[in-house]
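Write out the 3D structure for:
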Amino acid sequence: MTNIQNTKPKYDLEERTFNFAKDVRIFIKTLPKSMANFEDGKQVIKSSGSAGANYREANEALSKKDFVMRIKISRKEAKESEYWLRLILETNHLHNEDEAKKLIQEANELKKIFSSIVEKSK
């Protein structure tokens, strides 16, 4: 008798949100030095980290209401991250434009995942 193992990859949203925040920080370090990039960079660093931090808090929620609230905050922060990344992309001539687009896509996907979690939690 053969043992069939699950070939589906393990999905870890805590790790995914951590990697998103980490990748944003690495990307911000590559931006041209300007006052706008400094301010926009600070904003996206905060929002990208907050999306993952609030998701982790949701996993430790004391009630369903607390869980849903923190997931909604994570969704809001992912949406905000997408905004700042798009603003950075559209106001700079970046040598790593593809990286910015990947980060925008990841922020959008995280936003959709959090929206799905909220809907399923009703």
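Residues 14-22+35-120 form a domain with the de novo design (two linked rop proteins) fold (CATH 1.20.1440.60).
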